[in-house]
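Notes from the 1:1 (GR / supervisor)

We went over the backlog. Supervisor wanted to see one worked example end to end before approving the batch request, so GR pasted a single chain during the call. The sequence is below; no edits were made to it. Supervisor asked that the structure be written out right there so they could see what the output format looks like.
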Amino acid sequence: MQELHVNGTPTNCILNQGDVISLDCLGDQRTEFRWLDGFTVNGDVSLLRDPSSTGTKWRVWSHPGSCSISLESLGHIPGKKWLHGNAQDGTVRLEATSANHPDTKWSVVLTDGRYSFFSQSSVAGDKRWLDGVTISGKVVLQPAIQGYSGTQWNVVFR
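Structure output shown during the call:
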């Protein structure tokens, strides 16, 4: 994938090393399921109603020399921490791997104040865009941004 830029700036400059953020899904069906949450005990990733859960806070890890980041769940229970996307089956979960594992790397696109996250999964497949399904609270990967309103996110800096 080519480097992604916003107004000529590499996107990894938008979210910086050490930033603590929460991701608010902007799906067009606004329900109570909005906040990206990582449950560190079993690795589940879903949308939650309440942004005060520790699993809705994420630390940004940047990768110098590339336009990618990794997101570490700050859930208070020890366990799986790294947001992981599988491009083949479209699953999103937490893994115990490190920020340097290819499946925990994400590119960020900023369009009209809305963020989208592209999985750099090492697994072959076309499902790459982080999508929050606000009707059910599920989080999956989709093949495109267009047609999937849950691929748009608001980033709240903590």
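Supervisor's comment: Confidence is low (pLDDT under 50) at residues 8-12.
Batch request approved.
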